[in-house]
Write a structure and sequence with these properties.
Blueprint: E1 20-27, E2 30-37, E3 44-51, E4 59-65, E5 68-76, E6 79-86, E7 88-93, E8 101-106, E9 114-117, E10 120-124, E11 131-135, E12 151-152, E13 165-170, E14 174-181, E15 187-196, E16 199-204
Antiparallel strand pairs: 1-2, 2-3, 3-4, 5-6, 6-7, 7-8, 9-10, 10-11, 12-13, 13-16, 14-15
Length: about 200
């Protein structure tokens, strides 16, 4: 959807596939979709990675089949969490979005939707299993930044309520201003405006 005018959203492009979409999360130039393929024998969850660098021409660049009945997908740094009703919570390394690699799996109670406040994940377990709190080993180090040594990562969780964490890397100690703007370019908040140490940093808003 084109929301340049928030009061009048319009369809800018579509991307079709066989099956149904359950959830979506955006990271950089990629959209990660929890989708269901529907063969005649059973239903399989497929994680689809869509390149949206040009929103008018979305293109699938990667996929991974996992579990059954995907319910939600979450993104934290270079790790993606795909929740399935029958198959557990799948953890993927999406450092290369075109080639998601499964690095972990939680197969406890049937997992429904998950709200994340790292390092804890709060899971609506579903099917009479109640509510679970999972503690996952979030990587303590941030992936190597670009050659410049400066990197700003996708906030997590996204979307969020009421807080989100923003991580970034500095090549050396320097003055930093980190600000939030709305879709119209209006300043919402200045989160950081100070001299900040080099290396991995994060702040909560």
């Amino acid at each position: 959807m084109d929301i340049a005018d928030p009061l009048n959203p319009t369809e800018a492009a579509t991307y079709g596939f066989v099956g149904a979409a359950a959830d979506i999360v955006i990271g950089g130039n990629y959209a990660y979709l929890a989708t269901e393929s529907m063969p005649t024998d059973t239903v399989h969850t497929v994680l689809r990675v869509i390149d949206i660098s040009n929103p008018l021409t979305p293109m699938e660049v990667g996929s991974y089949a996992a579990g059954r009945y995907g319910t939600s997908v979450s993104l934290y740094g270079s790790y993606l969490y795909l929740n399935t009703l029958f198959g557990g919570l799948h953890v993927f390394d999406v450092t290369d979005p075109t080639n998601p690699v499964e690095t972990g799996l939680y197969t406890g109670a049937t997992i429904g939707r998950v709200a994340a406040v790292p390092p804890f994940f709060y899971a609506a377990a579903g099917l009479h299993a109640g509510f679970e709190i999972l503690q996952l080993d979030i990587p303590s180090s941030i992936p190597e930044p670009a050659a410049s040594g400066l990197a700003l990562y996708q906030n997590y969780p996204n979307p969020f309520n009421p807080m989100t964490t923003i991580s970034f890397v500095l090549p050396r100690p320097m003055a930093v201003e980190l600000a939030i703007y709305d879709v119209k370019g209006k300043l919402v908040a200045t989160i950081i405006d100070e001299f900040t140490s080099g290396g991995p940093n994060s702040t909560t808003w």
